[in-house]
Amino acid sequence: MADLLIQHGRGPGLRYQDIENAGDVWHWWEAPPADAGGGVPYAAIAALGDVSRPAPFLYTVELDIAEPDLPAIYEWYEQEHLPLLTAVPGCIGGTRYRRLDGGAPNLLAAYRFERPEVNQSPEWIAARSTPWCERVRPLFRSTRRFVRRLID
User: Can you tell which superkingdom this protein's organism belongs to (predicted)?
Assistant: First the structure.
């Protein structure tokens, strides 16, 4: 069962619009019913911070990681990356997800922001520039990053 279902352009749930492309709208449906369909389903892997409420901005990072490399990525995310990023001022919380339908990219990280430029702050840049980050970054394939704003 999915913990999150993302539907592009239509559907129930919160609506987040890419701040650089107004036509790119995600319907962010947390805890969808088991019979929900028509989108990309994800299972939550880990969360840190306040992820219980909508945030004004959502920063998403989609990664495609080869199956044999997933344990190394999970270890890095849980021990270093998620704790460091969610401690940055302006980051409310973050959740990691694994895609359930076998599609790519297979991982999604979603960070809830108070303001859209949190990922440009010196603290954020330092948190994503550690030696461990540099070691795992070559495992990333087809990375996509978006800052989205909550719309009515």
Answer: Bacteria
